[in-house]
Inverse folding.
């Protein structure tokens, strides 16, 4: 999955420090990220040294994000987009398939933090500029004492099985066109167990039982933490699809499940587990 970047190690402990020449810059514009144009299509994010060599002064308004191994990553939430010679902006979606994977993970994880910083420049209560705390990843208002922490939205991914079949779906009106599982965000005041029952009923009109937790996955494309569950259909297995949310929802036999190469998503790993008979 996208977060499985071994032997590299992700360090999200909040230890802000000034960049070194080899520190990496994650430069975003809307839902795109700046990468070097390379012949082999391998991801490359510029270092502070690269910018300096490109004749661009090194900006003082950097924000420390995290480190991978000994390399630190920074973004510029307060600075206008720039594009040095030899670089281009690519869609964030391309990071789903980009290599090396630890850089793809850095790019998308950095985006979630960058988005949080740019959308919280001002206090939501009193409208004054927010300040960055130096001890934890937090923003605060000096005037009204409002504090802001990064937002992570929990969401469930539900694999519903029915003997030798699994329920596969396709989204209506989404960039992602491959098979998916039933998924949805947890609402305020709800347990994750209740989210599963509600989402399954809303999207395909089924009841489920024997719910088992599988694994989780940080999914910064949508600012979420995905929680994966396997469960079985309970009683009537006729599907009543919500056509506002889904374009397809059907039972697919184990041997008829299409093989998908990309293995960065929890959804794909769960479908593969079932296809190989590792989850029943
Ligand atoms: Zn305030």
């Amino acid at each position: 999955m996208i977060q499985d970047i071994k032997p590299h190690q992700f360090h999200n402990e909040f230890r802000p420090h000034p960049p070194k020449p080899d520190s990496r810059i994650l430069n975003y514009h809307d839902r795109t990220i700046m990468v070097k144009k390379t012949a082999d299509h391998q991801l490359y994010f510029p270092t502070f040294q690269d910018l300096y060599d490109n004749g661009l002064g090194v900006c003082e308004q950097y924000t420390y994000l995290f480190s991978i191994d000994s390399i630190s990553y920074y973004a510029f939430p307060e600075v206008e987009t720039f594009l040095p010679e030899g670089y281009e902006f690519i869609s964030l979606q391309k990071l789903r398939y980009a290599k090396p994977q630890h850089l793809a993970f850095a790019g998308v994880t950095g985006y979630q933090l960058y988005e949080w910083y740019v959308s919280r420049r001002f206090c939501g209560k009193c409208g004054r500029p927010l300040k960055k705390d130096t001890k934890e990843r937090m923003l605060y208002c000096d005037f009204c004492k409002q504090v802001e922490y990064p937002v992570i939205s929990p969401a469930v991914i539900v694999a519903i099985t029915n003997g030798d079949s699994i329920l596969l779906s396709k989204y209506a009106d989404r960039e992602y066109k491959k098979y998916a599982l039933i998924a949805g965000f947890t609402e305020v005041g709800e347990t994750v167990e209740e989210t599963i029952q509600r989402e399954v009923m809303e999207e395909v009109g089924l009841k489920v039982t024997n719910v088992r937790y599988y694994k989780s996955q940080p999914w910064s494309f949508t600012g979420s933490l995905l929680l994966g569950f396997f469960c079985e259909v309970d009683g009537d297995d006729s599907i009543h699809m919500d056509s506002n949310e889904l374009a397809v929802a059907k039972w697919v036999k184990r041997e008829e499940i299409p093989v998908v190469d990309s293995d960065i998503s929890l959804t794909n790993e769960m479908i593969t587990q079932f296809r190989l008979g590792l989850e029943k």
The first strand starts at residue 10 and ends at 11. The chain has a mean pLDDT of 93.
